């Protein structure tokens, strides 16, 4: 249900933040790039 989807999104966001802090080659200040990156995860 929605709770499962919300939990998955939370996990993906945490994973994304972990990659960013690990120095992923991506500009976190660019919302368009962030959207494209998240779409790839989905």
N→C terminal distance: 16 Å
Number of extended strands: 0
General shape: globular
Low-confidence stretches are none
Oligomeric state of shown chains? single chain
Instruction: Summarize the biggest pleated sheet.
Output: none
- Helicity range: over 70%
Mean pLDDT: 76
Derived structural class: mainly alpha
Number of domains: 1
Rg measurement, Å: 11 Å
* Share in β-strands: under 5%
Total count of helical runs of at least 4 residues: 2
Reading the helices and strands in chain order gives: HH
What does this entry look like structurally?
- The chain has one domain (2-41).
- It has two helices and no strands.
- The chain has helices at 2-21, 31-41.
- The longest helix has 20 residues, at 2-21.
- The radius of gyration is 11 Å and the shape is globular.
- The two termini are 16 Å apart.
Descriptive tags:
2 helices; 42 residues; 0% strand
Would you summarize the structure shown here?
By secondary structure, this protein is mainly alpha-helical.
List the helices and strands and how they pair.
Elements: H1 2-21, H2 31-41
